[in-house]
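Form 12-C: Joint structure prediction
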Amino acid sequence: MRIYFTFEPRPDLRDPLVAEFPHVDFIFETGLSIDELQRADVLVTYGEDLNNENMNYATNLKWIFVASAGIEKMPAQAIMERNILVSNVRGIHKTPMAESMLAHILAIKRALPWIYEQQKKSEWSKKAKQSELRDSTALILGLGAIGSEVGRLLQAFGVTTIGCNRSGKEAAYMDNMVCFDQLMEALPKADIVISVLPKTDETTHLLKLEHFKVMKSNAIFMNFGRGNLVEEDTLNQAIQAGEFGYAVLDVFEQEPLAADHPLWSLPNVIVSPHISSHSSRYVERSLEIFKPSLEKWLRGEKDLDNVMDLSRGY
Amino acid sequence: MRIYFTFEPRPDLRDPLVAEFPHVDFIFETGLSIDELQRADVLVTYGEDLNNENMNYATNLKWIFVASAGIEKMPAQAIMERNILVSNVRGIHKTPMAESMLAHILAIKRALPWIYEQQKKSEWSKKAKQSELRDSTALILGLGAIGSEVGRLLQAFGVTTIGCNRSGKEAAYMDNMVCFDQLMEALPKADIVISVLPKTDETTHLLKLEHFKVMKSNAIFMNFGRGNLVEEDTLNQAIQAGEFGYAVLDVFEQEPLAADHPLWSLPNVIVSPHISSHSSRYVERSLEIFKPSLEKWLRGEKDLDNVMDLSRGY
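Section 2 - Result
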């Protein structure tokens, strides 16, 4: 059995893996070579190196383990035709992303950007405009592992959470639930509006100008899902018109965000270059998910964790 | 009964108070006048306007309600001699302070200062050095309302909390406990060291260079208690020698911090000008504590909440 990694884990993570599975041939490369792809039984990849063309050479491949949560860039059709099982690291992002979201929310509430600027001027001033997170209301769009985790943390801070998904069915760590159709009624209640929605037809341009118009004037809008949620022009127009208070954006319709884009320089916009899921512990966590799946696979079992349905896109 | 406020609550907070206690004469001023002090039965103050001299005029005064947590600046002896009851708003700071502390910790872990600087340059880069708060260990010195609240929140983030007080006796939201004498053994375990200790003889220069030397090289040290905890020269020397990773300081030996002080410009020091307890909801919260005490007082009861022992200093 040949397992082909198209990235190289650090030695302290790689060596225990190799030692734990002595009957497996592990190939570690930085990048994908056709030669190794042809020989691989299992591929471990971040997912961005696969395309329709190189999939033609994946003649032995039975399982792709994607060390990533999004799969938009994968050649779904070619993979399905070859009947290759795909599993991913669903849930791996929840800790760093929820921590990033709380970092941004608390930084705004507790005036950290202002404190940093005062420090640069060596200026001792107590005129910070600080408020509290406690007793706010957050509306969370998208209730997978990440949405639940941010809901859990917000509740610990005394925030009321309203979850929002397609069905409006109950979800963990949500005090109340609404469905997409009830957005217009839920938005005016929220001090914080968070999206962690995946990219699907239904989520594309789900938020329109009318939605921003009913937000509280000091609401914090955070997009940590996908950039397709709202047209950048709409967002830009809404924030400049003061329809809401603050935007924290980790994702954009067009990435990277163009250097001359107006969003970079608006005082009440934070541009995070799609890094909220990054963590020094990412590969460690990926391997923690990979190992039990590999054990199952070696026993001939196919009911791995996080098997993906490529036809649905997640 | 005359109740004299030496500050003016906003009308939306003041008016309901006045309406709720129709038999009380409320005087609201911004600042203290001897004339009104002489006539007052009850004084509501932030505490900084009292001194040995003006206390001579407080001949009717029976109760001082201090809308503040620290009382170092109050003329303790003069107040005790007049047998005046003092109560305060103990616990009022816990929400804004714990939120500020979590804001600073998460901002460092999730590289917010770096993200802000990149944005100023309109530079899309993913090279942020981000880590996670989860699975860290925090050592918390001082376990009153604030220490417990920050412990509670840290635990929600999956952090192991070690509490530290004089006795080492169990406290809420602490996974383990140590006493002051065990600091040298506890410090090397901590990724985050937080002090919320009050100013007493025992806490003055409690932390010495040897303590910083045993900290983890990437530890975050946070002083949100009082500046007497460590000599500023010691702190400055320790951080410049790289004994620990990051300092977040809300309090200083000498406040305001002098404009030419080296701490302002060190890259791994955050100077917060003693504002972590500030909140737009401060007066609202103070009055919520004051009202039930006033009801008791009007019934002739003396067992108010948060009665202070001025002889002990807290």
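Section 3 - Comments
Chain A touches chain B through 54 residues (CB under 8 Å). Residues 2-92+280-298 of chain A form a domain with the Rossmann fold fold (CATH 3.40.50.720).
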